[in-house]
Amino acid sequence: MPINIPGLLAPFQLLIHPRLVLPGLSVKDIRQIDFAALKRAGYRGAVFDKDNCLTIPYEDKLIPELQEAWDECRETFGKGNVLIVSNSAGTYLDAGGIQSESVTHHLQVPVLLHTSFKPAYSCISAIRTYFSSLHKPIRDDELIIVGDRIFTDVILANRIRLQHRKERTGFLGSVFSCAYEKEGTVSTEKESLLKAEGASKVIRLDRAGGPLAIWTTGVWKREAMAMRWMEKGIVNAVEKWSKPPGGEPLDTSRFVKRVLKEEPVKKPNVVEVLLARLRKG
Ligand SMILES: [Mg+2]
């Protein structure tokens, strides 16, 4: 198992920006994501993790249960606008790009080739280069980033969000933005976002200036369970103890599909079986 240095260093950044670990939305798996609602809110592109999000770890085929949701996602965002960013396929571990080709074949979307593991800044640059080079370029704040790990996928998304905000507002703007995050007012944020993005009110309030981090909490094959347990504990602690940014929170619940719970099939007990036989007899 290779050591993910960027992932190991990420916790140090949390001392300054603890809320980097918080996803914008948590779902069990991608079947709960309402891709059409995301598109209506202005999201145009998607970055997906592979292992334990779309495939069994180190396998290249889509988990069969996810086929319908995956087809819907690709149709909604369109060809080329969905990208796999994995810490296995497409990295230096993927000699000759054989695995990334196989994944592209099975999942029908491109795999990003990158030199550093998520959540490295060089990986972020590679993601930006990909989406900005599309025929219709996709901005940071038009992306959703979906994955099952906090220290790689969620921090990657939130790092882009942080960078995006700083680039949009400049140094002084970022200083005031940070001040806003702690103690500012709704109107201040609204004004700065409007000036920075020149976006319509509806789109601005829907996307809140950066990629949307979507955390898939379901585990298809047990892997790194101690780390997952620790990640979940950190998320809970940060949610509990850190102060949320002011302003109107982004309502992401409308991006979750209302999945009807299947009623468990009740097995008849011995008495019920005997009664049924007597009735038949
Ligand atoms: Mg994963």
TrEMBL record:
GO MF, any single term: phosphatidylglycerophosphatase activity
Q: Tell me the first and last residues of the signal peptide.
A: none
Q: Name the Gene3D superfamilies for this protein.
A: HAD superfamily/HAD-like
Q: Which domain of life is it from?
A: Eukaryota
One Pfam family matching this protein: PGP_phosphatase
Taking the record's annotation, the residue ranges forming a coiled coil are none
- Family annotation (SUPFAM superfamilies): HAD-like
Q: What is this protein called?
A: Mitochondrial PGP phosphatase-domain-containing protein
